[in-house]
Amino acid sequence: MAELICFNADCRARYAITDVLYNCTKCGGLLEAVYGAIDACDLKRVFRERRMSNAPLDQSGVWRYRELFPFLGDYAQVTTLREGNTPLLDAPAAAEYGGLDRLTFKHQGFNPTGSFKDNGMTCGVAQARRLGMKRVACVSTGNTSASMAAYAAAAGIEALIFLPHGNISFGKLAQALEYGARTFEVEANFDQILALVRVLAERLGIYLLNSVNPFRIEGQKTIIFEMLDQRDWRAPDWIVLPGGNLGNTSAFGKALREAHALGLIDKMPRLAVIQAEGSAPFYDFMQRGGEFRAVEKPETLATAIRIGDPVSWPKALHEIRSSCGVVDKVSEQEIADAKAIIGRCGIGCEPASAATLAGLRKLTAQGVVARDADVVAVLTGNVLKDPDYIYRYHTGQLKAPDGARIESRFGNQSVVVPNDADAIARAL
User: Fold this and answer.
1) Is-contact 78 63, C-beta < 8 A?
2) Contact in structure between 12 and 6 (CB atoms under 8 Å)
3) What is the tally of structural domains in the chain?
4) Can you give the pLDDT at residue 221?
5) Is residue 21 part of a domain?
6) C-alpha span between 51 and 6 (Å, rounded)
7) Which 3 state secondary structure label does DSSP give 378?
8) Largest CA distance in the chain
9) Environment class of residue 297 by beta-carbon count within 10 Å: exposed (0-12), middle (13-18) or buried (19+)?
10) What gap in Å lies between CA 106 and CA 234, rounded to an integer?
11) Fewer CB near the terminus (10 Å): N or C of the chain?
12) CATH number of the structural domain spanning residue 284
């Protein structure tokens, strides 16, 4: 039996799986989906056999693992764009840059709308359909809006998107517009807009699909399930990921704990969460302890993690502690350089994704991560999500939010040549 339970250990209030809730009504804590006993016998074989199936649910890299998040009673509610199915990519040049013998990227940018958000959104929209919701909403710096707009359109649900005015990549905004979402640019930052939209959602009966929605987290767990399946259920030593709203940190830790409890893996990997210096409230909290304090004016060019008050921090804290994990932060220069290195591997990613490699370079230098460690780093978004950033870096025009120039240390500027074969031959 599936139900929603308050994540607060001192509360643990229980609610029906069909209650439209994002927080506990008793203590205000976050909610998580919890299930009865799951029979893990033969699941590895079932998951592998589904790869050969043409059934829509089986072709989805999320719903292929549906026994591990059985919150739906009727799978006819599912809208799938064949999300998931993202590759593991070896990257020798990135490994060398990061101080490792070997590094593997789990690249979520191969998803239908180009980011990991699709894994969670297919589950969130399925729950919205189950509840009979006609409108869904999100606050987004880009990727969430693109994903929700696509899945809502495919499901026949109206999508309402709220974003910070002037603080979004046009590559991401273009997706939301293309998929027909009603888009509102609010003159406030992400955290302020989320508070506003939560009021509107309750008042107008709109279903909220930010990562505070527990069903989003259930979908994002499958990033880990698929990665483990691709590795024949051999758990790595470390899983490294960017930290913004911390939904993935929550989802990854929950997935690992559940997989270990079911006997699908025989050890727990450690999580390493990397934040941008100008948007690092979780890092600051882990360093000083005490009360969690938001960053009032978060700043970073890595827009996907430009979040100063991450709603999932209590869950993320639990998962970091449970996995003996670490949290670090990196500068704009470090992110930009790491992104260029990933590109030289023939892979490419959006800026926020590159925080993983930048963080790894610091963690190996500090001796936290051993050079011979088995490491999987998650790239959360596609390289074409923010093309203006790429152009400005390689042409030496990229500037940090404070106006400081970011050096083009690994730049690759195009060269203007005349319409002359001899001249071009000399240039070559």
Assistant:
1) yes
2) yes
3) 1
4) 98
5) no
6) 35
7) strand
8) 77
9) exposed
10) 15
11) C
12) 3.40.50.1100
- 379: which strand partners? 107
Residue 89 contacts residue 231 (beta carbons within 8 Å): no
Structure tokens at 383: 């390289």
How many whole angstroms separate alpha carbon 380 and alpha carbon 86?
Answer: 11
Is 377 part of a structural domain of the chain?
A: yes
Q: Shortest CA distance to 222 belongs to which of 80, 350, 85?
A: 85
CA 406 – CA 397 distance, rounded (Å): 8
Q: Is 139 helix (H, G, I), strand (E, B) or coil?
A: strand
Could you tell me if residue 280 is inside a domain? yes
Q: Are 358 and 330 in contact (CB under 8 A)?
A: yes
In which domain, by residue range, is 236 found? 88-114+216-394
Q: Which residues pair with 15 in a beta bridge?
A: 4
**Rounded-to-integer distance, Cα 308 and Cα 299, Å:** 8
In this structure, is the dihedral angle defined by the CA atoms of residues 19, 318, 120 and 206, taken in order, positive or negative?
positive
- Under 8 Å between Cβ of 181 and 206: no
Task: State residue 63 phi and psi, 5-degree precision.
Answer: -70, -15
| Amino acid present at 185 | E
Given CA atoms 19, 23, 26, 32 in this order, what sign does their dihedral have? Answer: positive
Q: What is the DSSP letter of 232?
A: T
Task: Give the tokens for residue 405.
Answer: 């120039």
238-254 as b/e, with b when 16 or more CB fall inside 10 Å? bbbbbbbbbbbbbbbbb
Contact 126, 79 (CB under 8 A): yes
Helix, strand, coil % in the chain, rounded to nearest 5: 45, 15, 40
Burial class from Cβ neighbours inside 10 Å (0-12, 13-18, 19+) for residue 278 reads buried
Rounded to an integer, what distance in angstroms lies between the CA atom of residue 360 and that of residue 334? 11
Asked if residue 239 is part of any domain, the answer here is yes
Tallying the residues shown for the chain, one arrives at 428
Would you say 67 and 45 are in contact if contact means Cβ atoms under 8 Å apart? no
Strands 3-6 and 31-34, bridge-based pairing:
antiparallel
Q: How far apart are CA 85 and CA 110, in angstroms?
A: 8
Task: Please list, in sequence order, all residues whose beta carbon lies within 8 angstroms of the beta carbon of residue 250, skipping any fewer than 6 positions away.
Answer: 211, 217, 312, 315, 316, 319
The answer to whether the CB of 271 falls within 8 A of the CB of 235 is no
- pTM of the complete model: 0.95
Mean pLDDT by 10 residues, the chain (428 residues): 96 97 96 94 96 97 98 96 98 98 98 97 98 95 90 98 79 88 89 89 94 95 98 98 96 98 97 98 95 93 92 96 98 98 97 98 98 98 92 96 96 92 92
